[in-house]
Design a protein that fits this description.
β45 and β46 form a beta hairpin. The chain is mainly beta. 45% of the residues are buried. Helices cover 5% and strands 43% of the residues. The protein has 4 domains: 250 residues, Sandwich (Jelly Rolls); 26 residues, no CATH class; 307 residues, Glycosyl hydrolase domain, family 43 (Tachylectin-2, Chain A, 5 Propeller); 147 residues, Exo-inulinase, domain 1 (Jelly Rolls), CATH 2.60.120.560.
Length: 769
């Protein structure tokens, strides 16, 4: 929400104005972008309790202005004799000055519309001439404090995104008296005139969105809204400006009294829920198509418990539920893009003070299981199961903890030969089944912290490792051994292995038959997400290669994966770079796009975003050329919600790639590019905004001679992700400060790129809010 201070000396004028407005006049100078739009408002006054009056265009009759009101309580439906609008936008560019042409009242493509309410008498004027007149069946609606003004939407609860005014507005005002026809005819935009002073006034040509009397000081923008050429420009499709006074009841909500889902829903609860939803929709950093924790504290925000069953993808998310504790939220989807909310799967209670990370598994009979770390203290690993069709009801195992700790995340016991034995009982992996038996891994951070941090500790206790457990019945688990041997040339002694995911790798991005290799995804808390590819036999894992998914810090974190009905392995990860004040915004926690993972012909891990994301594309644009030196702007797609496909031959260029979320002067920008000399994919966030981790991240990427560089770049409010040639990716969050940091460009430095092709799409939001 943008807060604007009142102009000096205006508060006293505001205080002298009446608290309640009954008789009134609305005046607006507007230019519709087209004459076929239906049901938007050029100016509305709303009391926040489902009552409103406004200047509405084309709602009941095409191209006709009318006094809008709640359920047409103060609107005449008999509009046959009312003239249809004929004004169309001028051919001049939007930023050209308006032309004075006599009777057109100073703006060739603008029309002055005014509605005067005097008692039950309603008069509508167009350019100072009577347009319509009728008597209301009811008394006029009273407005005071609270009150809200809208441009675009008809009213606060309007749900149709198409029903918003599309066009330009030069000046808008509300009077607390019914003006006469002569007074209305004498009005001019940007001039107060000699008659009554406006109760509220917006002169967009000289003060932008600031309301001149100081009555309305809080401003919220939704969708395609801007000030251009001295006008408020509304792009339709829900684009709106909503202005309120601080502390007004209509734009605030009372604190709901204690209530439960089994009790009646009070007005306070409804208003509070709606206000939270609207606040989240207006958040400039909340992504539109990356999965977000719906509300509350997604820190830690690990994806957990992913599984696929009967055509549906299920995903759990760890969050700190206010008033309760660490819980697993639950969403499901049939397309990996649009997610349905379920009740929380597990949380505090039934022997737990909270539930930390773990995995998901579906047995042969269709029963789904969640494996999780029981909080707090010396508990261990727990299981929960569900067999109902929607997996809405989960039951924790009576055998919990199925793997018992002797202290937080650690078990000390004796081995078969009586020797001391220590293993981790934290962050269990997904369960898998082989030859009728069940297997599960646990992480080692608590063990590493206990005995592996000193340089003098045995090498067998240092660095990353996982522990293998076996079960015949899912209730009784037996420790087997360390699952793999760490190689110091791949990972160092400071790294742990937590949030493990162990699944077979397909040989194609489309899935199909397994490749014979397995993938162990995991994190070290200090270095983020990484992986081993290797062989699995005799209940041991032999890594044959190692790779990372983050290189400068741990922004890409806590991987979770599943294998779907096509045989695809799909993963998610938490982007840990939340803003410091995320809690006060009502939400935190964002995931990277779902990636499909497979084994390439060269034996290395390949990755790309799932194809389902293409369903969100719209408004395709394309650019091409024989070569590029310097920069070329990419226009026509949404700079804060888009996808770019870039194919270039680096040629002699030292660096080539894309600049996104850039301000017009380039002071604020995010760069994603290929560094030819270093053979690296680079993400430069050093000038990305005013918050977050403003660093340079580099990932190894060696192109073969004459190999085309193929980048896919995704921008989604505060998330930027770049994928390169199906074998490398970097995902980070950025926080631009500038309200105009939406620029997109292709660039080449230190030489020219060869033949290039770029396609771009705006991306339609898939999150409900």
């Amino acid at each position: 929400m943008l807060l604007l201070a009142s102009a000096p000396g205006l508060n006293a004028a505001r205080d002298r104005m009446p608290a309640v407005v009954r008789d009134k006049t609305f005046v607006v100078w507007a230019s519709p972008a087209n004459l076929i739009q239906r049901g938007g408002s050029a100016l509305t006054l709303d009391d926040g309790r489902s009552h409103f009056d406004g200047i509405v265009f084309g709602e009941l009759s095409p191209a006709k202005w009318m006094p809008g009101s709640d359920y047409y309580a103060r609107t005449s439906r008999e509009q046959e004799a009312w003239p249809a609008e004929t004004v169309t936008p001028a051919s001049a560019p939007p930023n050209a000055p308006s032309r004075t042409v006599g009777k057109a009242r100073g703006f060739e493509d603008f029309v002055e519309m005014a509605i005067s309410y005097r008692g039950r008498e309603v008069s509508v004027y167009r350019n100072g001439r009577l347009y319509a007149h009728y008597d209301m069946a009811s008394e006029p609606q009273e407005f005071g404090e609270p009150a809200t003004v809208l441009f675009g939407r008809r009213h606060l609860d309007a749900g149709d995104p198409q029903g918003s005014f599309e066009g330009r507005i030069r000046d808008a005002r509300i009077y607390d008296v019914a003006l006469s026809q002569e007074q209305i005819a004498a009005l001019r935009p940007d001039e107060a005139g000699s008659g009554p002073k406006p109760w509220a006034w917006w002169s967009f040509g000289d003060e932008g969105l600031r309301e001149k009397t100081g009555r309305f000081t809080e401003i919220r923008l939704i969708g395609d809204v801007r000030i251009d050429g001295g006008c408020l420009v509304l792009g339709g499709k829900g684009a709106s400006v909503i202005e309120t006074a601080p502390g007004e009841e209509g734009r605030t909500a009372p604190t709901p009294a204690t209530w439960s889902e089994n009790g009646p829903v009070s007005e306070a609860v409804v208003r509070s829920a709606r206000l939270l939803r609207e606040k989240l929709l207006a958040d400039p950093y909340r992504p539109g198509y990356h999965f977000c924790v719906p509300e509350d504290i997604g820190i830690p925000g690990d994806p957990n418990g992913a599984f696929y069953h009967d055509g549906v993808y299920h995903l759990m998310y760890l969050y700190n539920r206010s008033g309760s504790g660490f819980s697993w939220g639950h969403v499901s989807s049939t397309d990996l893009v649009h997610w349905r909310q379920h009740p929380d799967a597990i949380g505090p209670g039934d022997g737990d003070d909270g539930c930390f990370s773990g995995g998901g598994f579906v047995d042969d009979d269709g029963t789904a299981y969640l494996s999780y770390w029981m909080l707090w203290g010396a508990r261990g690993i727990g299981l929960a199961s569900s067999h109902d069709p929607e997996f809405d009801v989960w039951t924790k195992s009576k055998a919990n903890p199925v793997i018992r700790s002797t202290e937080f995340g650690v078990t000390e016991t004796t081995g078969p030969d009586g020797e001391p034995l220590m293993y981790g009982t934290a962050d269990p992996s997904n369960i898998w089944k082989k030859d009728g038996r069940y297997y599960m891994l646990t992480g080692n951070l608590p063990v590493l912290n206990k005995i592996g941090r000193s340089p003098n500790d045995p090498l067998t206790t240092q660095g990353d490792r996982t522990y293998l457990f076996e079960s015949k019945d899912l209730a009784h688990w037996t420790y087997q051994h360390v699952f793999y041997e760490r190689k110091p040339e791949w990972t160092d002694r400071s790294e742990d292995d937590m949030c493990p995911s162990f699944l077979p790798l397909p040989s194609k991005p489309e899935g199909g038959a397994p490749s014979g290799k397995y993938l162990l995804l995991f994190i070290s808390h200090n270095r983020g997400c990484q992986y081993y590819v290797g062989d699995y036999r005799d209940d041991r894992f032999n890594p044959t290669s190692h790779g990372r998914m983050t290189w400068i810090d741990n922004t890409f974190f806590a991987p979770e994966a599943l294998v779907d009905g096509k045989g695809r392995q799909i993963m998610w990860a938490w982007l840990t770079d939340n803003p410091d004040d995320g809690k006060v915004e009502g939400w935190s926690g964002v995931y990277g796009l779902p990636r499909v993972l497979w084994l390439g012909p060269d034996g290395t891990l390949k990755m790309r975003p799932v194809d389902e994301l293409k369903s969100l594309r719209y408004g395709e644009r394309s650019w091409s050329g024989a070569s590029l030196s310097g920069a070329r702007k990419l226009e026509g797609v949404r700079g804060d919600s888009c996808e770019l496909e870039i194919d270039v031959t680096p040629g002699s260029a030292a660096r080539c790639g894309a600049m996104v979320r850039s301000s017009p002067d380039g002071h604020e920008r995010t760069l994603v590019y290929y560094d030819a000399k270093a053979e690296e994919l680079v993400f430069d966030a050093t000038k990305s905004g005013g918050a977050g981790r403003m660093v340079v991240e580099r990932a190894p990427l060696a192109l073969a001679p004459r190999e085309t560089l193929r980048l896919r770049v995704f921008v989604d409010k505060s998330v930027v992700e770049v994928f390169a040639n199906d074998r490398q990716a970097i995902s980070r969050r950025v926080y631009p400060v500038g309200k105009d940091s939406f620029g997109l460009s292709l660039f080449s430095e230190g030489g020219a790129t060869g033949v290039y092709r770029v396609s771009g799409w705006s991306m339609f939001p898939s999150n409900p809010y």
